[in-house]
């Protein structure tokens, strides 16, 4: 009986050790589908060569993956720029930090009602993201096109518009849902990942596209304290490899730009 018990304990110990080893070599990353999850698929075989298994969890919002990274359910996430991350930490009390910058998604203005931004009429409706950083960014895009003028507040809302010659009417919409408003508004300012998910091509379909010198690079993000873990170092190295850079350049043809 003792031999059977001992054998069972040894088997259990070996199983637990194997599971711990598997966990140590599995990297779980949260990402939005396009382009982040697509880029991570290219990272998978690169990490596999170094003994790591990459598990990609897809999300269609910006809140859950950050909270899951804070709670430890994700090792990292990849979907956001620094202004959004800083605002999220401030509002939610999270302790998330960026590691490496991977790409830029120029924000664009889209429409099903007009073919040229010059056709925009007085009183036209405009949908923009409602989270603080992306809303401010969208208004900056409209200002760069000469449609409005803004004050100097760091994070802007429609209340910060000081000149609106066309009397544009703004609708603040949850970021992921902005593409769905295209049937109802004259123009919509959409993040590139959600635009592409809605089968919009930024370089072909956008009436206005954000400047390439935009500060909104998308980063790999981890919980503070994990920046130098073996998993994070392996992920950072793989996602900024020449193979990934080539993929971004060839796949997205300028709609998304590598920043490493």
Keywords:
23% strand, 260 residues, signal, 2 domains, DL-methionine ABC transporter MetINQ, substrate-binding protein, D-Maltodextrin-Binding Protein, domain 2, 6-stranded mixed beta sheet, single chain, alpha/beta, 9 helices
Structure overview:
The chain has 9 helices and 13 strands. It has 260 residues and is α/β, with parallel strands linked by helices. It has 2 domains: 23-105 and 216-258, Periplasmic binding protein-like II (D-Maltodextrin-Binding Protein, domain 2); 108-209, D-Maltodextrin-Binding Protein, domain 2 (3-Layer(aba) Sandwich). The strands form 3 sheets. A 6-stranded mixed beta sheet has the order 2-1-3-12-4-13, with helices on both faces. Strands 9-6-10-5-11 form a 5-stranded mixed beta sheet. Strands 7-8 form a two-stranded antiparallel ribbon. The longest helix is centred in the first third of the chain and has 23 residues, at 2-24. The radius of gyration is 22 Å and the shape is elongated. The relative contact order is 0.19. This is DL-methionine ABC transporter MetINQ, substrate-binding protein. Belongs to the NlpA lipoprotein family. Keywords: Lipoprotein, Membrane, Palmitate, Signal. Its main location: membrane.
């Amino acid at each position: 009986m003792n031999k059977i018990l001992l054998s069972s304990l040894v088997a259990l110990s070996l199983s637990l050790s194997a599971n711990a080893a598997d966990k140590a070599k599995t990297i779980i990353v949260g990402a939005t589908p396009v382009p982040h999850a697509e880029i991570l698929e290219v990272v998978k075989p690169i990490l596999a060569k170094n003994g790591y298994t990459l598990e990609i969890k897809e999300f269609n919002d910006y809140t859950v993956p950050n909270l899951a990274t804070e709670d430890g359910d994700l090792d990292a996430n990849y979907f956001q720029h620094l202004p959004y991350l800083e605002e999220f930490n401030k509002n939610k009390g999270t302790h998330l930090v960026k590691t490496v910058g991977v790409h830029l998604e120029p924000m664009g203005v889209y429409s099903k009602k007009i073919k040229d931004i010059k056709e925009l009429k007085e009183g036209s409706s405009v949908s923009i993201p409602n989270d603080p950083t992306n809303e401010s960014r969208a208004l900056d895009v409209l200002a760069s096109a000469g449609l409005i003028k803004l004050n100097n507040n760091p994070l802007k809302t429609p209340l910060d518009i000081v000149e609106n010659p066309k009397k544009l009417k703004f609708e603040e919409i949850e970021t992921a849902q902005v593409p769905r408003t295209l049937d109802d508004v004259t123009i919509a300012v959409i993040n590139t990942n959600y635009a592409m998910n809605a089968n919009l091509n930024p370089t072909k379909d956008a009436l206005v596209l954000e400047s390439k010198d935009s500060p909104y690079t998308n980063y790999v993000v981890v919980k503070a304290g994990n920046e130098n873990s073996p998993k994070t170092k392996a992920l950072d190295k793989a996602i900024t490899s020449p193979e990934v850079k080539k993929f971004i350049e060839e796949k997205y043809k300028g709609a998304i730009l590598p920043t490493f």
